[in-house]
Amino acid sequence: MYYVYVLQSLREKTLYTGFTRTVKKRLLYHNNGSDPYTTKFKPWILVYYEAYLLKEDAINREKFLKSGSGKKYLDKQLREYFRKNPRRKL
Q1: For 52-79, how does the pLDDT look when each residue is reduced to its tens digit (9 = 90+)?
Q2: In whole angstroms, what is the distance from residue 45 CA to residue 24 CA?
Q3: Residue ranges per domain, the chain?
Q4: CA distances from 61 to 4, 5, 8, 13 (A)
Q5: What is the DSSP string of 21-57?
Q6: pLDDT in tens, 3-56
Q7: pLDDT at 85
Q8: d(CA 26, CA 23)
Q9: Dihedral Cα 48, 81, 73, 25, nearest 10 deg
């Protein structure tokens, strides 16, 4: 399986979208400072993920979620979460 995931920084309240084969390991990767981009925003929590059988489908979904329409989709999908946990946008 391939997973598209969305993390939220507890420090800055920003979101990060990516894809992986192992969500738990990927979250640890972001939180232990291994990724130069995400290290300055840690700690991260997992707020959303989707599973796909094919890598290509996961990559395409990741690209969509990073687009303007995808961000609107996430805002709508996670409306109650964001209402209770406001976020700042970069």
Answers
A1: 999 999 999 999 999 999 999 999 999 9
A2: 10
A3: 2-84
A4: 7, 10, 18, 22
A5: S-HHHHHHHHHTT-STTTGGG--EEEEEEEEESSHHH
A6: 999 999 998 888 999 999 999 999 999 999 888 889 999 999 999 999 999 999
A7: 78
A8: 5
A9: -10
Predicted structure pTM score: 0.90
DSSP category for residue 4? E
> How far is the C-alpha of 26 from the C-alpha of 28, rounded, in Å?
5
Query: CATH code for 2-84?
Result: 3.40.1440
Q: For residues 51 and 43, give the distance between their C-alpha atoms in angstroms, rounded to a whole number.
A: 23
E strand or H helix at 6, and its extent?
strand 2-9
